[in-house]
Amino acid sequence: MAFGQQPQDGRNPQYNNVNGQQYGQPYGQQYAYAPNGTATMNAQTAYSYEQVQEAQRASVTRAYGEMTIGLIVTAVVAVLAQMSGMYVAFLQSTGMIGVFGLAIVQIGLALYLGARIMKIKASTARVMFYVYAALMGFTLSSIFLVYDLGSIGLALGMCALFFLVLTMFGMTTKFNMLKAGPILMVGLIVLIISQVILSFLPVSGATQMVCAIGLILFAGMTIYDAQQTRALFQAYEAQGPEMIRKVSVICALNLYLDFVNMFLYILRLLGSRD
C-alpha cells in the first residue's frame, strides 16, 4: 500500500449474511408453566445462556487481542525500518515500482485472506495476518519522512482514544449498524475513486475535505465492525474452536484496517510536516 492510499479492505462478502441477526436473541428462551399457571424460566436454559454469553465475550476479546498484536507488529516494523534506513534504501533501489509492488502484495494478501479464510487453517490465517501487518509497517515507515514525531504521537493517541470510544459505543448501543453495511461500502468505493482522481488533479482544499470524510466513514466502519465481530461469533460459535480462531483472525483484520485508516486520516488532517 502506498502511503496516503487506503489499505484495501479484506472483508469477506460471505460474512454479510449475518447482518440481519438480532443481538441478544440468538437463543430462544424456553419457558415452562408451573401448576399454578405462572411462567418460570427453565434453569438449565438460563445457565447455558450465561455460559454462551461468557464464551462470546471471550471470543470478541480474542479478536481485539489479535488486532492489537497486529498493530504492535506494524509499529515495531515501521520504527525498525526507519531507524535502519531499510525503507529509504528500498525506495532508492526500486523507486515507484517497489512502492506499487508492495501495494499489490498487500492488497492481494488481504483479499486472499478474506476469500479463503474458511478453507485454510487458523494458524495459517494468523501467520498471513501478521505478515500483512509487517508489510504495512514497512510501508508506513514513510510517515517518519514526512511528519514530525510529535504529530505522529498525537495522531496515534487520538486514534486510540477515538477507536476505543467508537468500539464501546458499537458494543453497547441498541442501534443496529449492520444495516448500514452497504452504504458504508459504497462510501468506501467513492472515497477511493476520489483519492485517485485528486492524486492526478489536485484541487485546493479538496484533500482536507476528503480526509475529513474518510475519517467519518471509518468511524462508522469501526462501529459496524464492532457489531459484526459479535454477530460473526454468534453465527459460528457452534462450529468449534478452529472456526472461532478463523473468525477471530478475519475480524482482527477488519478492525486493524479501521484503526490504520483512521490513524492516517487524523495524521493528514492534524500532522505537521518536517
Contiguous uncertain segments of 5+ residues: 1-47
Note the gap between the termini: 22 Å
How many DSSP-defined strands?
2
Number of domains: 1
Could you give the order of strands across the largest sheet?
1-2
Structural class: mainly alpha
Oligomerization: single chain
Rg from alpha-carbon coordinates: 21 Å
Number of helices: 8
Shape: globular
Q: Helix coverage percent of residues?
A: over 70%
**Strand content bin:** under 5%
| Major beta-sheet overview | 2 strands, antiparallel
The H-and-E topology, N to C, reads as EEHHHHHHHH
Average predicted local confidence, pLDDT? 81
Notes on the protein architecture:
The protein is mostly helical. It has one domain (13-25, 32-270). The chain is 73% helix and 2% strand. The chain has a two-stranded antiparallel sheet with strand order 1-2. A hairpin with a 5-residue loop joins strand 1 and strand 2 (39-41). The model is unreliable at 1-47 (pLDDT under 50).
List keywords for this structure.
disordered N terminus, single chain, two-stranded antiparallel sheet, 274 residues, mainly alpha
Task: Summarize, please.
Helices cover 73% and strands 2% of the residues. With 274 residues, it is mainly α. It has one domain (13-25, 32-270).
Task: Give the topology, please.
Blueprint: E1 31-33, E2 39-41, H1 43-84, H2 86-116, H3 122-140, H4 143-146, H5 149-172, H6 181-200, H7 206-236, H8 241-270
Antiparallel strand pairs: 1-2
Helix pairs in contact: 1-3, 1-7, 1-8, 2-3, 3-8, 5-7, 5-8, 6-7, 7-8
